[in-house]
Write a structure and sequence with these properties.
The chain is an alpha+beta fold. It has two domains: about 110 residues, Trna Endonuclease, Chain: A, domain 1 (3-Layer(aba) Sandwich); about 30 residues. It has four helices and five strands. It has a five-stranded mixed sheet with strand order 1-2-3-4-5. It starts with a helix and ends with a helix.
């Protein structure tokens, strides 16, 4: 039993150290895509000092409504690394709108952000720009405190009315 515990510890330590200090075996990744906008985006990423470690990574997402199952995919165009940090990359396709909107951010980036919990690199191969998209949730505390006070007030009113009704019998 002790031997199994030691082997498990050594395996986990090796995998951790290999991923942290050694170059990834995907470091010499060769591009598989033949789409022109993806090839242009890969060139832009490499010119800016990003190292491509993965391409066209698809994550299957299963959703259940009642007893029906719906399967969809979240696709990352590239996974890149720069200065020890890894970023998922979405490349602007020719069908995407020219301007950035809240709907586009939610539809394309929020799911990736919740999956990877790191900023997403958005590459526009037509302008050569790389933007990092990050999210922050804002909870206005004053609004919630006010709601809490109102609920407490109504609870006290309800308790007082219940007490008065119980005394009337």
């Amino acid at each position: 039993m002790e031997v199994l515990a030691i082997l498990t510890f050594l395996t986990v330590a090796f995998l951790f150290l290999r991923g942290k200090y050694l170059r990834s075996p995907l470091g010499d990744h060769e591009l598989q895509s033949r789409r022109e906008h993806l090839i242009r985006a890969a060139d832009i990423l490499q010119e800016q000092g990003y190292r491509i470690v993965g391409e066209r990574i698809a994550h299957e997402v299963a959703s259940y409504i009642g007893n029906r199952k719906f399967v969809s995919y979240i696709v990352v165009d590239y996974m890149v690394e720069k200065e020890g940090l890894q970023y998922p990359v979405k490349v602007r396709s020719p069908r995407d709108p020219d301007r950035m909107s809240g709907a586009l951010l939610r539809r394309q980036f929020l799911t990736l952000y919740t999956l990877y919990e790191t900023p997403i690199a958005y590459v526009n191969p037509y302008t050569g720009m790389i933007d990092l998209v990050d999210f922050a949730l804002d909870f206005p505390g004053r609004h919630y405190r006010r709601r809490w006070r109102t609920r407490l007030l109504w609870l006290c009113v309800g308790v007082a009315l219940g007490w008065l009704l119980s005394l009337s019998h």
